[in-house]
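Lecture notes, continued. The same structure-token format from the folding unit now serves as the input rather than the output. Read the line below as a description of shape only.
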């Protein structure tokens, strides 16, 4: 029996608008052999409890600030404990970087 092909590792992609895309970052990840698991928390998508099924995560920007009172902003900021605790690669772009700064006790 021939070996089964290994599944491609997934990267969690967090976007904040219906029309947003992972753009160049997404294209580069696909070229490197990753699948993209795209979630949009402002539109009701949940975030995983663990990153066991993911090789890492990228949180992109949006029109909001990490200091806004939106519930999803607070939930995402709190969720950053997951990649940090699991020592998984994480990239925060714009809003994602602000959320990371807030999560770690900094000011954004």
């Amino acid at each position: 029996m021939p070996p089964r092909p290994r599944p491609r590792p997934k990267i969690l992609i967090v976007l904040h608008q219906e029309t947003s895309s992972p753009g160049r970052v997404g294209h580069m990840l696909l070229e490197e052999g990753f699948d993209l698991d795209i979630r949009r928390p402002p539109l009701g998508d949940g975030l995983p409890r663990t990153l066991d099924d993911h090789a890492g995560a990228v949180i992109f920007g949006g029109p909001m600030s990490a200091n806004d009172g939106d519930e999803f902003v607070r939930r995402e900021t709190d969720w950053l404990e997951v990649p940090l605790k699991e020592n998984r690669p994480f990239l925060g772009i714009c809003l994602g970087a602000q959320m990371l700064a807030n999560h770690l006790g900094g000011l954004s």
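Point for the exam: The chain has a mean pLDDT of 94.
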